[in-house]
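=== RUN LOG ===
request id: a7f3
mode: sequence -> structure
chains: 1
length: 238
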Amino acid sequence: MGNSALKAHLETAQKTGVFQLTGKGLSEFPEDLQKLSSNLRTIDLSNNKIELLPPLIEKFSFLKSLSLNNNKLTALPEELCKLKKLETLHLNGNHLRQLPAAFGQLSALKTLSLSGNQLRTVPTQLSGLRQLDVVDLSKNQIQNVPDTVGELQAIELNLNQNQISQISVQISHCPRLKVLRLEENCLELSMLPQSILSDSQISLLAVEGNLFEIKKLRELEGYDKYMERFTATKKKFA
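=== RESULT ===
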């Protein structure tokens, strides 16, 4: 992509606060963007070939939304965690194995998409994010859901298409969790904590495609309580 094209995009971004350059085969984060670090509210560089997010990302202190879906990121810099206004972070379809240690400092984060990466566990850092609403960790290599999940503030947690065979009973203590998606994992019915049904806020539990028949779920103690929440929620949205 030529400099003149990039320049035109930068001029537009200066006026709109939005920089969008997708599917252009970019191999690196455009350094020229830092000239607009105080203007930009949205950056979308999805569908490129970016391997590294440079430390200069910390300069974008007003950034609200960052999308880097379908790139080649293997790690994220600690500097990303300084973006105190960031509300939306889309990183689907990369090669991420873990999140930076300071990730819990992204205090405004509401939506986090990490579908199609190489995570092996639910990152403990997520429990520190107080504004988090939606977390998508589908299509990773997660095998278990640890105790720290009990502090997760999310309303929706998507764990579809992982390799989960164990879930901490702490998941039923999530204060705001309403939607839990666990489709196409490796769960035996005995490994699904019954407290999810009897003693949680969860009103939509999606567990199709595991190692048990769905009708067996209905025989579990607490299923009636779960159905009460499920029905009440459906009425709300009807």
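=== NOTES ===
The chain has two domains: 1-94, 119-237.
Helices lie at 3-16, 195-198, 214-217, 223-237.
=== END ===
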